[in-house]
Amino acid sequence: MKISFSAPSLPKSGAIAVGVLDDRKLTPSAAELDKTAGGALSRAIKASRFKGKKGQHLEVLAVAGLEASRVLLFGMGKAEELGDTDLDEVGGSIVAKMNEAGEKEVAVYVDEIKGTAKTSAERAARHAFGARLRGYRFDRHKTKEEADSKPSLSKVTFMLEDHADAKKAYKPLDKVTEGVFLTRDVVSEPANLMYPETFVNEAKKLEKLGVELEVLDEKDMKKLGMGSLLCVSQGSERPPRLLIMRWKGGKGKDAPVAFVGKGVTFDTGGISLKPAAGMEDMKWDMAGAGVVLGLMKALAGRKAKMNAVGVCGLVENMPSGKATRPGDIVKSMSGQTIEVLNTDAEGRLVLADALWYVQETDKPNVVIDLATLTGAIIVALGSETAGLFSNSDELAGRLTDAGKAVGEPIWRLPLGETYDKQLDCDAADMKNIGGNREAGSIVAAQFLQRFIKKDVEWAHLDIAGVTWSKKDKPTVPKGSTAFGVRLLERFVTENYEN
Ligand code: BES
Ligand code: MN
Ligand code: ZN
């Protein structure tokens, strides 16, 4: 799907999309089209329940006086309430409607609107961002799809006087979509194709953007004493990798912000085997790593003026004659020992060594990890909101704000000594699960916190519920959501640039 910006003109074919404000207030372009069409648009509005509210649409077909096949009126709500995500969603929903209708091309009018905080160029860029995000589709493994079930839309043109400014404003957003798409791609791939080595191959493509890579193999990790991460991968035929990506867009002396992702390319549960039903979902148990990869692509793509390090702990969790047994005791790189009572609580074992490694080598002041860590977070928060855990009120606040701004909401849960105690263990320094089923997501976060050094600001995002969507959303088609890329990209812009 191609996105472009141009000066307004009347399209000779394809569809037209134009905005209407609450309550049935035509934008200048809509009013002009209505005039050209002899009042057909305002008559159609009057004959319908369309009020111009956010998310409402009205399609008017074969309008006399216009050569376009149809006019899609999209509701924008109240001008003074139009925020970034509303504008994104307008763009996304136009793409969805056009694909439903079977249109190939659409021209979207973007007007100057009184009362909005944003210029038409800024708004056109946001519409384009949403349009591109919704236009994503993972169909590389479909070999014989009929043309009439494929998405039809191939071209979206935003028409406004300030088209040059709009194009400029869109450029960094386009880089963010590139990052989001990379995340969606790697998370969607099945585990026979996406495993530690192939994940690293995807990361190698970022080198041409200026990202520096370091890849540790099993031998390297053994030498470093990463017994915690390695006990997860040891049952698999697929060798593990620790992938480190460095983006140095800031001052040399500035400590990097560290992003750490759980990259379990398939989670069978290991010897503590999961039930068969739904196990295929565990191909996306590497979404934390997928988000870190996509984020690094977005930051490098738009040449972010800051230093970031992304670390992905890449392993496959399989049962076999070589697999870790419940009761095995392993030693992590930090020196702390762990009794593995449940081999299905593997994400925390992988993160323990990845977190320790990045703190040792890159000396970040801020560490943020992402992981599809617990089923319990889905019970607590559902599939729209991710769980946030942090040792810093400030960091938690900044992340929450970023999430709100981009439509990726996160909600903070508590940490505390009473939860931490659940991990105490007779045989080793800690066990990898709590004593009962209570507060499973918090206990998992407590485990991670045992691998965070004093004075490091840390946040953990449990994205198990939000990583995969069963239904289409305005800017996110069903499937892999890449939840976290937009959030962290915004977090970086707001806190580490300017
Ligand atoms: N990858 C799972 C968590 C998960 C479950 C993600 C469902 C997405 C959907 C994780 O490794 C896991 O198995 N966690 C266990 C922990 C338990 C054994 C303490 C869980 O949540 O049941
Ligand atoms: Mn598991
Ligand atoms: Zn897992």
Q: Can you give keywords for this protein?
A:
21% strand; 8-stranded mixed β-sheet; 498 residues
Description of the molecule:
Helix 4 (120-134) runs parallel beside helix 5 (163-188) and helix 10 (347-362) packs parallel to helix 14. The protein is an alpha/beta fold and 498 residues long. The radius of gyration is 25 Å and the shape is elongated. It starts with a strand and ends with a helix. Helices cover 35% and strands 21% of the residues. An eight-stranded mixed β-sheet has the order 8-9-11-10-14-18-15-16, with helices on both faces. Strands 1, 2, 3, 4, 5, 6 and 7 form a seven-stranded mixed β-sheet that branches. Strands 12-13-17 form a three-stranded mixed β-sheet, covered by helices on one side. Residues 264, 267, 285, 346-347 line the site of zinc ion.
Please give the structural blueprint:
Layout: E1 2-6, E2 15-21, E3 25-26, H1 28-36, H2 40-46, E4 57-61, E5 70-75, H3 84-101, E6 105-109, H4 120-134, E7 155-159, H5 163-188, H6 196-204, E8 212-216, H7 218-224, H8 227-233, E9 241-248, E10 257-267, H9 287-301, E11 307-317, E12 328-331, E13 337-340, H10 347-362, E14 366-371, H11 376-381, E15 386-390, H12 393-406, E16 410-412, H13 417-420, E17 430-431, H14 440-449, E18 457-462, E19 468-469, E20 479-480, H15 485-496
Parallel strand pairs: 1-7, 2-5, 2-6, 6-7, 10-11, 10-14, 13-17, 14-18, 15-16
Antiparallel strand pairs: 2-3, 4-5, 8-9, 9-11, 12-13, 15-18, 19-20
Helix pairs in contact: 3-4, 4-5, 5-9, 8-10, 9-15, 10-14, 12-15
The protein binds ligand BES, manganese (II) ion (MN) and zinc ion.
The site of ligand BES has 15 residues, from loops.
